Target: (apollo) hypothetical protein
Amino acid sequence: MQKLTERIDDLKQRIAAWGKRIRRYTERSTRFNQNRLFQSDQKRLYKSVERPIVSGTGPAPNQADMVAFWRSLWSEPVNHNEGPWTEVVASQCASITPMDPVIITPDDVAEAVRRAPNWKSPGLDGLHHYWLKGFMVCHSVLA
Model:
């Protein structure tokens, strides 16, 4: 009976060791694949990392209920604390000189686009910098 329990303990230890080995392998391969994807396509890597978290699989709320909820929340008057500290902050901020207006020229746009990498998308518009560099007519419109 003692040999049987020793054998069971030995097998449990082997299974635990194999489990740790498999876990290390999967973590390493995931890290390797993420590094390779980062080198080739950063956008796809970040999209895969930032997968949306699915929450609330129930039915969508009624629009009238939503409007009533937010209307009741925002329509009630709120008495804010107008303590003496607000006057102190206002007097301290009065001495700050306002910033001069910033004028962006087409040359500024050309300089900013010149330093940007060609095939990186600047945002949701999906327009690559390569095209912005080539179409100098757009620089005056963007300025």
About this structure: The two ends are 86 Å apart (CA to CA). The longest helix spans residues 2-40.
